Amino acid sequence: MAGFGTSTSAISAGGAAPTTGETEFFNGSTWTVVNALNNLCSHTSGCGTSTAGIKTGGDTPPKSPNLSGNSEKWNGTSWTEVTGFTSGRTNAATGGTQDACLVMGGGQVPASHGFVEEYNGTSWSEKADLLTDRSHVGCSANGTVTAMLFIGGGLVPPGAQSALTEYWNGTSWTEVADLATATNYNIGGGTSTEAINVGGGPPSTDQIVEEWNDPTYTIKTVTVS
Fold it and tell me: In the chain, N or C terminus with fewer CB closer than 10 Å?
């Protein structure tokens, strides 16, 4: 699903199975169904706030290889379809704000790729590719269009996990410190200087949490009740 917002005001949209456009709002305690996406999608991504977000890409029914570059904006009440990006993909990472965001990496059957595109509120433009092609990231892109991290993700062949972290300075990518544990389907949040990376899998599923304090990672203790 595409997800964005905060721990007390968040949006979740799309998903499978079956592929859906359902959207729900979280107020810190409970979820409420709100207006759905205009287009059904799964393996999609998004960024922004609960009143100004953007959903990007994914699969459309039936799933792969029906890849989409479809983009929709959320205004706190409803979705509006906007210009899609040029290279349809699934399981990409998205970071930034509604009108200043990057879409990075993702899957195009049968391979991962490193394509990067930037949205300026009106249209998408291609930027420098990731140094290493990757897909199957949750939201492990943290920061802004001029200072972003891309963490972990799936390599080729599909299912292979990565520990790589790359930093974006608005123009190009630089490889920085690796995760202690390679992962994909991971979830992240924060900024390019203070970020967190959580969980991941398959082929293995883990509860590992790592915190990024530029320029290194620290493994955090997880207590399961």
Answer: C
Beta bridge partners of 166: 150, 175
User: In this structure, is the dihedral angle defined by the CA atoms of residues 79, 130, 7 and 19, taken in order, positive or negative?
Assistant: positive
Of residues 208, 115, 211, 205, the one with CA closest to residue 159? 205
Q: Across the strands, what pairs with 211?
A: 196, 218
- Give the contacts of 121 (CB within 8 A, at least 6 positions apart): 98, 99, 100
- Cis check: omega of the bond before 215, within 30 degrees of 0: yes
CB 50 within 8 A of CB 25: yes
In whole numbers, what is the pLDDT of the chain averaged over residues? 88
pLDDT digits (tens, 9 = 90+) for 157-190: 666 888 899 999 999 999 999 998 888 888 888 8
The two three-digit tokens of residue 207, written as one number: 């509860």
Cis omega before residue 202 (within 30°)?
A: yes
* Alpha-carbon span 94 to 40, nearest angstrom: 19
